[in-house]
Amino acid sequence: MKLKDIIYFSGRNMVQKRTQSLLTIIGIVIGIMAIVSLISLGYGVQNYIQDSITSVGANIVSVYSKGLGASGTVVEFDKNDVKVVEKVRGVDSVMYGSLKGANVEFKKGEEQFLTINGVEPSQYTTIYSEALKYELESGRWLKETDKSACIIGNGVAYDTYERDVKVGDKLLIADKKYKVVGILEEVGDPGEAKTIVIPMESSSLFDDEEYQYMIAYVKDVDEVERVAEDMRENLEDERHEDDFEVYTAQNIAEQVSNIFGVFTLFLVGVASISLIVGAVGISNTMHMSILERRKDIGILKAIGAENSTILKIFVVEAGFLGLVGGIAGTILGIIIAKIAEYLASGAGYGYIKAWITPELILSVLAFSFIVGILSGYFPSRSGAKLDPIETLRGD
Predict the structure, then answer these.
(1) Where are the transmembrane segments (predicted)?
(2) Which terminus of the chain is more exposed, N or C, with fewer CB under 10 A?
């Protein structure tokens, strides 16, 4: 029997049993829909963050504390550590600062607990505007002469208080009023969006002799990895301890990729449970179909059809059930992913992107077709082995 005849027989049975076929593929549709939407969003976020980190922070080397020291407090850096970083060959400028949490009051006594970033104004402006290429939506950058000024993230301006915070408004931070002189453009980072930047020396929140992080700007991007290694060695010699971490954009991108990769695979594994249910449904449908078509099988064998031909007819039919469910599930999965991207963008989470590629679509369709084939193989094999005489007698 030719391939087109096998496909014809398989397709005809699906059409004749439309309701049964439809109910069968629902499980496949749900499973594929969940897998496509989760893979699309998971890898979309991963790729967006990777691209953002490697493109914007390619010239940056960051140094952070590993965590708590022997005294139970956060390990801090000092002026000597800053000098060590500044002296590393290839470093153009260094920004240092600390992060604290504090209640921030706006008009009418409205308070919110936000992250406060204490910095040296000139260093902050250099690193953020020149190295990281951040831009202000409105206002200006901090100046060295600023003592009671602040720059706020986009989320602080528009998503924190009942009324929007604008340039010129004042915020009460640790019993001191700060005038908003600049608002950062939306950068897709919720942490940055909810941060307020103030001069370190202006607030009792900070000790201007101790810092939680250092960020170095390296002009030659090809030197970044070498600078990071030299920085690590020199700081170890200075501190006599390995109580810090040195990060480059590539390091961070790889860590993000690994974390999101594992998380996405976990979600896909959970979603695959419904796909297993769909596979069982196909197997059950093929078993019932073989029982209902025993006489058809007997007739085909009586006119010379071989066991392999009968097997192919039912296996292809099972594969088509999986493929149709895969097509419908893929379409629905893409729609769900795009809706999630749209809603996330409207809520200020611009980093949530739907990752849709031809490779993803073709892989999922091939996968669903194979799932259908495997699900229908064993019932089909038992049908192919039926005795034609018994089937024609109705035994």
Answers:
(1) 21-45, 259-285, 318-340, 360-378
(2) C
Check residue 185 and report its DSSP letter: P
State how far the Cα of 285 lies from the Cα of 301, in Å rounded to an integer: 22
Cβ atoms 188, 48 nearer than 8 A: yes
pLDDT tens digits, residue range 334-393? 999 999 888 887 776 777 888 888 988 998 899 888 888 888 787 777 766 665 555 555
Compute, in degrees rounded to 10, the torsion defined by CA atoms 47, 53, 56, 57: -160
242, 269, 299 — which closes off a domain? 242
Residue 58: Cβ-neighbour burial (10 angstroms; 0-12, 13-18, 19+): middle
Give domain status of residue 69, yes or no.
no
Six-digit token pair at 27? 């499980």
Residue 130 carries which DSSP code?
I
Model confidence, pTM: 0.59
Bridge partners (DSSP) of residue 108 are: none
**pLDDT tens digits along 214-225:** 999 988 888 888
Which of 193, 117, 105, 106 lies closest to 154, judged by CA?
193
- Is 65 inside a domain boundary? no
Show the domain range for 85: 76-242
Is there a contact between 374 and 276 (Cβ–Cβ < 8 Å)?
no
